[in-house]
Amino acid sequence: MKPQWSWLLTVCAVAVGLGSLTLAPTGVTHGLTSGTGSQRTWTVCAQGCDFTSIQQAVDAASAGDRILIRPGTYAEHLVITKSLMLEGTGREQTIIKGAEFEKPLIFIPQQASPEIRMADLALTGSLSKAIYATPCDPIFTVGRCAAGIEVGGAAKLSLHRVQLDNHSVAGIWVYNKLARVQLFDSQIGSAKLAGILLYYAELRVVNSEIFVGSNRGTGYYRVGIWATDSSSVTLVSSTIRQSDAAMRLERSAQVVVTDSRFWETGISYGDDYSPEYGEGYKALITGSEFLDASLLAAAKSQITILHSRFNRGGIILDVRARAVIQNSEIAENSWSPVIQSGIWLSGSVEVYLESNRIVRNRDWGVALDVPQCERQFGKATPRITGRDNEIPDKDQPNGNKKGALCPPDYPWPPGFRK
Q1: CB neighbours of residue 153 within 10 Å
Q2: Cα separation values, 332 from 116, 261, 318, Å
Q3: Which of 286, 248, 245 minimizes the C-alpha distance to 265?
Q4: pLDDT bracket for residue 337 (50, 70, 90)
Q5: Helix (H, G, I), strand (E, B) or coil at 386
Q6: Average pLDDT of 265-274?
């Protein structure tokens, strides 16, 4: 038992430690922290305001000023290098749309480090002539990415009640190590590649919704949040739905998910087996719900799942993933056309399971990727520990259709099942 609990405490400590690596401010910032104290409000509208275009107001404003954008639709490519507040009159009244092909609606250059607050407006329709979306590059396509917002500088950007929709690459693209982006009560809709695409940066999403759409069968996926290169993501009381993948993490990216919901989508951590993608993925998921949604952890992912619910979607652990799953329910998995067990283990994974309820899955409650479990070319050499799990057999109430554990003669830990 000592090695078992040592492993549990180590992984839990690592997972809980994610809080220091992700955005976890003690309070919510609703305005700018910089400025001289003599901020001015500028107005923008078609007639009778200070300016008729938003860029004119941006150029005239001083750091810390407020730009109030009256109802209307504005075709603009904005370049912002100073700390400002951009406020509309509502997402349905104040709309900024794409003005130039292969450029973002809002661009924050690499040399700039402003604090920008945006509220009560919509950013829609970045323009691109490309048939298929490809990730923008922080070297070759700077300032030329068909996104809603491109953050190249060390900006602090907060969005409040903002909607981003119908973007050719991404709703938001961030690639500065010092950039920090926060979304509150906002929505990200259709995007051909990702709702939010992060390189290095920090992201916090609170009480918001992402639904970028699906391209299944067309050869490329749409992802709600695609984080890579040591990015960190915090998702709180938010929903990601109807996307090919809710979240995809690569190259040491990390995530904390709390009280959130995933619907008709999946999460993948470290699903690229190449060596350069194999280090440092970490995720902590608590109090969250997966509906028609699965979770895949591969490479060297470290995953902790607490007090969460998977309904019609299971958990797949592969390659060298390490996972702690406690006090959670995994039920009725029949969502995946390939794997329909509650928890599927492959490769040389390590997993600790305690006090989980794994019931009514179409195949087994917990299964290994081996021929006995109908995987002809499967191979699994897992290390499994745990206790007090409710995993009923096929002839028991709430039983898993093919059985509790597969293969049944595997040396499952004593006390693994109640």
Answers
A1: 22
A2: 45, 17, 21
A3: 245
A4: low
A5: strand
A6: 64
- The answer to whether 167 touches 126, Cβ cutoff 8 Å, is yes
Beta bridge partners of 358: 330
278-318 pLDDT, tens per residue?
A: 456 789 999 999 999 889 888 888 999 999 999 998 999 98
| CA dist., res. 300 & res. 349, Å (int) | 9
122-139 residue pLDDT tens? 999 999 888 777 888 888
Residue ranges of E strands in 109-230? 115-124, 147-151, 156-165, 170-174, 180-184, 187-188, 194-199, 202-206, 209-210, 223-228
Is 252 strand, coil or helix?
A: coil
Alpha-carbon dihedral of residues 332, 333, 335, 336, nearest 10 degrees? -160
Cross-strand pairs, 11: none
Eight-class DSSP state of 19: G
Question: For residue 392, is the peptide bond before it cis, meaning its omega torsion is within 30 degrees of 0?
Answer: no
The 10 Å CB-count burial string (b at 16+, else e) for 386-412 is bbebbbbeeeeeebbebbbbbeeebeb
Mean pLDDT value across residues 272-283: 56
- Mean pLDDT over 108-119 rounds to 97
Instruction: At 168, list the tokens.
Output: 């050719």
Q: What is the CA radius of gyration of the chain?
A: 23
Q: Measuring CA to CA, how many Å separate 145 from each of 159, 214, 251?
A: 20, 21, 22
| Closest by CA position to 169, among listed 212, 232, 122, 216 | 212
In this structure, what token pair is assigned to residue 226?
Answer: 């695609």
